[in-house]
What does this fold into?
Amino acid sequence: MRTGNASDYREVKQMNREAQRHFEILVIGGGPAGMAAAARAAEAGARVGIVDDNFGFGGQIWRSESNGARSDNGKKTESSQWVERVRASGAIALCGLRVVHQPEPGVLLAENLDSFYEFTYEKLVLATGAREIFLPFPGWTLPNVMGAGGLQAMVKCGLPVRGKRVVVAGAGPLLLAVAVYLRKHGAEIPVICEQASWGSLAKFGLALFSWPKKILQGFQLKRDLVGIPIAANSWPLAAHGQQAIESVTISRAGKNENIPCDYLACGFHLIPNIELPQLLGCAVNSGFVQVDDFQTTTVPSIFCAGEPTSVGGVELALIEGQIAGLAAAGRRIEAKSLFGKRRKARGFARLLDRTFRLRPELRSLSLSDTMVCRCEDVSYSRLRQHSSWRAAKLHTRCGMGPCQGRVCGPATQFLFDWNPDSVRPPVFPTRVETLAAITGPSQLQHSEVTGGQS
Amino acid sequence: MNNSAYDVVIVGAGIVGAACTDELAHRGLRVVVVDGDIIGSGATAAGMGHIVVMDDSDAQFALTRYSQQLWQELRPELPDDVEYEQCGTIWVAADEGEMLEVRRKRDYYAKRGVPTEALDPQALYRLEPNLRRGLAGGLLVPEDGVLYPPCAARFLMERAQKRGAKLHLGVPVAQIGRGQVRLRDGTEIAAEIIVNAAGAFAAELTPGLEIKKRKGHLVITDRYPGFVRHQLVELGYLKSAHSVSGDSVAFNVQPRRTGQILIGSSRQYGAEHKEVENSMLVRMLQRAQEYMPGLAQLSTVRTWTGFRAATPDKLPLIGPWVGSTTGSTTGNTTGEAAGGATGDQSIFLATGHEGLGITTSLGTARILADQITRTKPQIPIEPYLPTRTAKEYAHA
Amino acid sequence: MRSEITVTVNGKPVVVPSGTTVAVAMMLAGQACRTSVSGEPRGPLCGMGICFECRVAIDGISHCRGCQVLCELGMQVTTEK
It folds into this structure.
């Protein structure tokens, strides 16, 4: 397993330089869905490449500790099993690379910190995952107020939290997983504030019985959570502090409570990363990529698996990834054999969606001077004057910063019911030289230097 | 004679429409603006926002200079979000041939009271250290500036509203003519005068108008304060803007007050769709990197396109419309001959500004209002009259 | 045993375990990664490279996402204006 330390990173850059550029199947995203797709496709004999912008695989949910430490007592976790499987399958790993543009169908442009590459493919599997939803409230821009997954990522990349007080708040099962993880690393968790109601959470708990694996996870979670108070119907009202957060005021059982803390890990469930699918012309429905039974999008050569099709957790992502990989490799019968499992797992996605829908009170947290667009520092009151995302963007610059609307877009969608814009290249900030280097159709070469295996 | 609630309907809420609305309201006329979209949604949203004098022709100079001075007068009233910066323009000369052009422009402007300064290479690099080495010099025009057009349009509209103008936005216009504007939802608005300020879409509303869409691409970077201090344009820009056919790119970068850098420019005829085209993007960025190699490492945040409204003789159309292409060739310069074969005297034009819409918006508004209120204009207006087209298109 | 490396944050040396990202190094040094348009101090938010709040200047290059870059010996990191 790639440990992600500095020498490994140099090795990654070197491998990227030597790697092939042409693939039969190119997988974008190295989380559970991407790994599942790549492994299955490569095992079926296709020449597969798998691209991810992190140092190693795992995506967000299975992000490895970047110093190589194992937080699982050395047991073979499901995550490490899949990493091994990808390696053994012969799929080519292309880490530390971010896809920014599609110059023409069949070609993708990717960039890393110091170089850029054009890849060609016959089939594409998009497994771009999801990101946390951030909602504004007074003080949310203070340093040490982070996403729940965000703080977890920091800890995995070297941030010590032993002895630190961390309030975890927002929505979704990620909060519980993060709280457990932080506690294992020595943090003190005064409370987990879940905005959903007790009724929703109870239904969620009961419904877990439909999924045996989840019951086990549920029991493990319960054991791990012993001693951490969970408050339902609870959400942050304001973060306080000078140079960084010092305390947070939460609403709990209708009363306000001020809790001193060192960090606030706050995320309001997940929203899928559909920017690349949209750029490539895949149809989107209510914010999710439309796929058929074989995980094919409305573009025949492009498949999509995992969170971008519906936020459904790791198990669904693994199944969808396998179906996509098999289908891309032409193994439709094998893909079909997974349909039953997927049907069950999709039920969990629907449960997640129902349980953790964001409540309307969260729309009224901002004061008029609360920043909503963090890149351009546009306040709530300035945004409220406009009737659409486009008008707000044009007149206040909200969404025109480097986050390209990834933070403020979902927030304003929730706050004001605005619809997002169409997607234009580049889908991530990209260097001028990378865009300027796009080769035309007549000049494209398939360079086939045989590169190393992952 | 006219029982309607308005004297003038302005079609188009871009910078030109906004300037016209403001000026006409200022003169006491009852004005309403219609647009199918929000304020400043067309070329106003897409353009670079420069305020620049150009000397392609005496007529172009007269209008850009007049208008630039109006912007300078307006400047103290502009709110912060309009981001008016008098950063100046430097016309960059790549070789001695282009330095001749620098001197010609300097003399031309000197005769007309526009301050400029010819720059030798040392002076050029002192002002703009990130330009590539080996250039021959340039011409600094210190009174040129840049602003953020959507907020400028909004400022003008809000001021117009305070003066009594009304806005009717969100419903596309279906038809205009004979003192009536009909919207797609059936709403009809009557007024003695209808001003077509619809920019790239003007010809859709007034058949026979010779306005072609000229697509342009733009890229904006993240914040790099101080990387570029002035608007920079290569002298070849003129060749690009000159051509009446074909695709071209030219080096043109501009600093925003935020420290972001706008990279342009490109021109295409015949491209109808808004999509960013890689071939143009690549050519434009490569041209930009040729002049400023340091651009290569800068992070770009967005790319987009827009459509300029281009006329055959590169001057805007400001004044009463002559009617169909078979219309009047009597060459009258006042409103009486307007209407030509169709007899429709209600339509005025304020469109066809190509890449100078922001610059000349204020001057356009004055000239238009002068004609409507029969006031003597402050500059000769014959070159911009739509009546010129009947006899001058043959020569274009 | 994990190794340690020294990087410089806003002129002061900071010792971090190998495998630490630049964003975390800024947090350990108690320094904001960047100053926002209106002057607020900002630190990492999303941890996955999409929010751009963790932008720092590394060895003179601006707009580097600190959460995506591993510390290397001798790196000079400064808060971005």
About this structure: Chain B touches chain C at residues 222-225, 258, 297, 299 (CB under 8 Å). Residues 184 and 292 of chain B are 48 Å apart (CA to CA). DSSP finds eleven helices and 18 strands in chain B.
